[in-house]
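Troubleshooting: if your tokenizer reports a length mismatch, compare your output against this known-good record of 470 residues.
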Amino acid sequence: MSDYVADPAILTLGGPPPSPFFDAVEAAAFPTLILRYRNRRWDARVGLSGLSDADWLDHFGRFHPLADNLKAPLALRYHGHQFRNYNPDIGDGRGFLFAQLRDEAGRLLDFGTKGSGQTPYSRFGDGRLTLKGGVREILATEMLEALGVYTSKTFSLIETGEALQRNDEPSPTRACVLVRLSHSHIRFGTFQRLAFEQDAEAMARLVSYCCRHLETSNPSGMDADPVAFFARVVARTARLVADWTAAGFVHGVLNTDNMNVTGESFDYGPWRFAPSVDPEFTAAYFDQTGLYAFGRQAEAGAWNLARLGGCLTLMASVDGLNDALSTYTEHYQSALSDALFRRLGLQRSGAGDAALTAALLGWLEASRAPLEQVLFDWFGGKESDARAAASPLADLYGAPAFAEAKALIRAAPPDRPSRLAHRYFSGTAPCTMLIDEVEAIWAKIAERDDWSALEDKLRAIAAMREAYNY
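Known-good structure output:
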């Protein structure tokens, strides 16, 4: 177990009030608090496993401060492009930064909330989160973490006893407050606000803060040159989008305020996992043009990076920033091969890596074979010949259309093939997270307050995480 190490580093941004970065706010007072989920793996890693459930409710339901930490929650300020339309009237509208601490590697971690009440940026919203939304966030973060995607962690979920009215689900519906553990809540939109206000001094402070506190555990920080900083954000964003692709994940709302500078997946709303490699598959019912469809997420990442780079022209050369942005495609393609090889349990060897990536993705798109089943069947490459031959997809694997991808998979050296001895691989089907499964889990909770399906799914995800051991 780690020791709890408080570090409210956000306050180093300082400056005279009102701050260009945040506003002090108060949490809502909820009628009741029922602990529904506590992340036991991560509470131990950050030194909070010794909290009793009563203490947990006190800190993560009533938001009484953690020792030596922020004395008041902070609603972070930002702007954002939402479906490519600029919106200067947003910010933390139903959440805030509650606390900051260090993990076992010395990296800064944020405790951010969702559903914790109204703030100056709530506009006409009630500042609440539906219980269904909270359950969905648990499922998204646990699944993505198990698949090796750099994601925020759902740290706590507490039902609050309120009845909410929503237009997109049966109402009244139950409410909750969620706490998210993340390495950063500094969004692209945080920089957009400062650029909108032409506040070059605050922009320089923010870049310095990111380099010193978010990118490394080294007190001297990373290179705070804005072009070098932007180049690192470009590479991290490319890797995140590539990891989503290899996971079959569709975030759904890739607005600039939903992407952060650490390249960490967070802020889960209408997400879905695609059943197959379908470029036009969308997650949000309101994404009627497919702007954030599965096959357009890489484009969305590049577009959002261009907006971030534009903000940094307040303090850096346009040519330098454009040069950094121009590396995005190369980073993405390399990261996509990294991700697919990782998901297949294969070692990258160089020459044939791009060919395998192209052949497999091309076949997956043409065949519409279930992505997770294929990656499960061929995990370990040639070490899984017998398992693939016994798969429900065996006929597809024997067809000429798969011959090139199959040959390249079998030719790649396996990475830690001993993992195939895990009980997870003794079955014939992988753990998945398709929309029908998510809805079935929620239906049991909504209709009978039966949490057993969620608990079963979390156990299945845990087994998958142990087996892959990314």
